[in-house]
Amino acid sequence: MTFNGEQEAIYSLVVYNNKLYVGQGSGNLDGDILFEAFPNWLEVYYGNQESIRSLAVYNGNLYAGQASGGVSFYNGIQWSTTIVSNGINVYSLVVYNNKLYVELENGRIAVYDGTNWITTPVGGGEIRALAVYNSKLYAGQGVITLEMEIYGLMMEIHGL
Question: How confident is the model over 57-110, as pLDDT tens digits?
Fold first, then answer.
């Protein structure tokens, strides 16, 4: 299986309903999602954001984190917007303890329990990645110092 996308970058991959989904994009109005329908790829979402930075499956729905645009979800039939965050990049989505965790830039995480969203700061700077390891949730951050040094931080998230 190969994929030659219309955009410059593929940022995310996920399996949903036994199909491989690809999130792509590289500029204004480029954020698309396609899925593998051998031997072709079919577009299931034509985004109006820069790119699809992250994909996750939660409670039977496909969630898409968009650059400069928040989070949308797909129930297998239609797309809906669940968090609108104009101008805020969503770099990472992860499922942990039966909740969906969404990185919202500026050191904030949104947590969805299937009914309600709670947004909370976790401190330290911009979060760029979320992952579950050994039954714990971790956040990876990128920091640029005044001296223009770049270094990464990783911290365990408690109490969310």
Answer: 999 999 998 887 688 899 999 988 887 666 678 888 999 999 999 887 777 888
The pair of structure tokens assigned to 143 is 């920091």
Nearest to residue 155, comparing CAs of 55, 136, 108, 121?
136
How far, CA to CA in Å, does 7 sit from each of 1, 108, 125? 18, 29, 29
Q: Give the global pTM.
A: 0.83
